[in-house]
Amino acid sequence: MTDLHRRGLMFVLSSPSGAGKTTLSRRLLVDDPEIDISVSATTRPPREGEIEGRDYRFVDDAAFDALVARDDLLEWAKVFGYRYGTPRGPVEATLHAGRDVLFDIDWQGTQQLQQTDAASDLVRVFILPPTMAELERRLRGRGTDAPDVVAARMQRAATEISHWGEYDYILINDDPDRCLGELRAILKAERLRRKRQLGLANFVRTMLA
Ligand code: 5GP
Is the pTM of this model over 0.90? Predict the structure, then answer.
């Protein structure tokens, strides 16, 4: 029997804060058994409701320094004055097992991943809000942040959005259900790429024999 296994891919989702990325990635993970999320390390303190090890690994500055010094992070960046980074070990283990990894990281991290050996495993998706007014409404509606924080996030959103051209797919999240369907379709098609279907040459050779 021919071994038709798959090469795991790195599925990157970036968007400005408030574009619905977190909800979309949670929904994607719930009913897709072949993809795991990469849990980032961060020096940001936990927000209400966030769970250690599920949302982030919350670490102090010294622990983050140690992760960087040991080269334990695949990429890291500073966002809003805090550091965020992707632990290398879990990603490599998941990919090795032929499963996919979902990354909720910003444009800086995406650029760094693009510069690694793993660039050919990368699928980059950028999620845009329908309008900046809608984005601001969502940021205010969340009610967790002070007005000056919302203003700073709007400024940062414009910077994040300016990097849309560095992504493979651009989705406009004016309808979360449709957007989720589009994300699933991208994932499905990318999994079927010839380069990710290991053992295909053997399969075809056996078939023709
Ligand atoms: P938040 O503090 O709202 O959870 O995240 C702020 C920003 O940091 C989001 O755009 C998020 O995608 C990004 N982020 C989270 N984890 C990482 C990471 O490990 N690396 C990078 N480069 N960005 C991250």
Answer: yes
